[in-house]
Amino acid sequence: MRLLVLLAAALFLIAAHAQAQVYAPYDGYGEYDGYGYDDPYSPYPPPPDYELEPDYGEPLQEPREPSTRIGRGTIVIATREHTLIYTTSAGEQFAYPIAVGREGKQWYGTTRVVSKRLHPEWRPTASMRQKNPRLPEVVKPGPANPLGTRAIYLADGLLRIHGTNDPSSIGTNASSGCFRMYREDVEELYDMVQPGTRVIVQR
């Protein structure tokens, strides 16, 4: 009997430890937490809106044809269609499904790529760690990293295009403003786009 109790306790501790290593998908751009935009990438902190159980159940809206009559070498994000279209300088087009911001967290306009990061680290802010003491100071690259394997930073605050550790959110309004992509898609896009690439975010 004592052996069974010890075994059950050990299994509980293992399960709790494993759960503590999984971090909900993060992204956002609405709050700077005192971090100036003059040097936003060294190190790059996430906004303080950490969500333990975000809701990915929002239904897709009726699709319409995204407008792609934009110049070459441009990224067009059709928010309502949950689609990112990149037109290369040679005129070739690549379309990818994405997750976009939830209602009230969406941004529209024209911006540009300012930086890229391979295997980005995720650094919860002090306020996030205060709310959730289980969070580490930094989440190293790996399957638990909410930013995935690639991050493409845009010029407007903390807005970015990046991977995700929850591919089931792709195609929905799930984020706090950023654009999530499947791993293979963001890795392909990362290799093609360069700083200065124009980005148009449509409704």
TrEMBL record:
Gene Ontology BP, a term: peptidoglycan-protein cross-linking
GO CC terms of this entry: extracellular region
Annotated segments matching region Disordered: 37-67
Keyword Metal-binding attributed: no
Family annotation (InterPro entries): LD-transpeptidase, LD_TPept_cat_dom, Transpep_catalytic_dom
Superkingdom as given in the UniProt entry: Bacteria
Domain L,D-TPase catalytic stretches: 73-202
Keywords on record: Cell shape, Cell wall biogenesis/degradation, Glycosyltransferase, Hydrolase, Lipoprotein, Peptidoglycan synthesis, Signal, Transferase
Pathway: Cell wall biogenesis; peptidoglycan biosynthesis
Active-site residues from the entry: H162 (proton donor/acceptor), C178 (nucleophile)
Molecular functions per Gene Ontology: glycosyltransferase activity; peptidoglycan L,D-transpeptidase activity
Signal sequence range: 1-20
Family: Belongs to the YkuD family.
Annotated protein name in UniProt: Lipoprotein-anchoring transpeptidase ErfK/SrfK
